[in-house]
Design brief:
mainly alpha, Arc Repressor Mutant, subunit A, three-stranded antiparallel beta sheet, about 65% helix
Length: about 250
């Protein structure tokens, strides 16, 4: 009897763990997650998922959230009566004024698009991953493929949301945006410095190559002389050979 009670308690414990794990996975996934992916995430079998989800439904009766179960997928969502509250929160979030760093990154990408994060970092002189992520989150920039180069870095460009936000008809009107135009001269100067540095480095490498090539004839000559000349060891060998010949005669 004790063994049976222990076994049942273990089953209840396992189910409670899987329910909490499923809740965490669904929340973290954000969008609708399929039953098979959810099962893989929590270490359960796919056939267990419907029962786990139905066990979770009661958790949200007195909550602002609800668990949606639709065609082999599930998702956590806010209840419809809080839709306006959610819209207000999102509006506040997206309407926050852009920081100077965000405007600078946005200007660099806008004037050089499609641009990699490496280019943004080089022009600014500091790393900018969080700023780029924030601009993507606001819908002002987006991923536009990958550069055909080692590592295949992501390329970023501006969006139609960017144009609407700054009242532009096309990207050619960038200089009409005071907030971005103020960075244009700075960006151009920084790019000029970068290009100048690259040209200087290339010129130095070319000079080193020319110097190395110009030294090759003398180096070859030295090797030739050294290789053809008789060494002391070879001289002694020749003298011993002559001595043996004279003794034989």
């Amino acid at each position: 009897m004790a063994i049976k009670d222990s076994y049942q308690a273990e089953l209840i414990h396992d189910e409670e763990y899987l329910i909490r794990a499923a809740e965490a996975a669904i929340f973290a996934y954000g969008s609708a997650i399929s039953f098979d992916k959810l099962a893989e995430a929590i270490g359960a079998e796919e056939k267990q998922i419907p029962q786990l989800l139905h066990s979770m439904l009661g958790r949200y009766e007195n909550s602002a959230f609800e668990l949606l179960i639709l065609d082999g997928h599930t998702q956590l969502a806010t209840k419809s009566e809080y839709a306006q509250v959610v819209r207000n929160a999102l509006t506040i979030r997206h309407n926050q004024p852009l920081s100077r760093a965000a405007l600078e990154v946005l200007a660099i990408i806008a004037y050089n698009q499609p641009a990699t994060r490496a280019l943004v970092d080089r022009v600014r002189g500091v790393e900018s991953p969080s700023v780029i992520m924030s601009l993507c989150d606001k819908g002002l920039i987006e991923e536009q493929g990958r550069l055909d180069a080692p590592g295949r870095p992501m390329l970023y460009g501006t969006t139609t949301v960017f144009l609407r936000t700054f009242g532009l008809e096309s990207i050619d009107d960038l200089d009409e945006v005071p907030e971005l135009a103020m960075f244009s001269q700075q960006i151009k100067e920084q790019r000029r410095q970068l290009l100048l540095g690259e040209e200087t480095t290339k010129a130095q490498k070319d000079q080193l190559t020319l110097e190395a090539v110009s030294e090759v004839p003398s180096a070859v000559a030295d090797v030739t002389v050294t290789d053809t000349a008789e060494t002391p060891f070879e001289v002694r060998m020749e003298e011993e050979k002559k001595a043996r010949q004279e003794n034989e005669e």
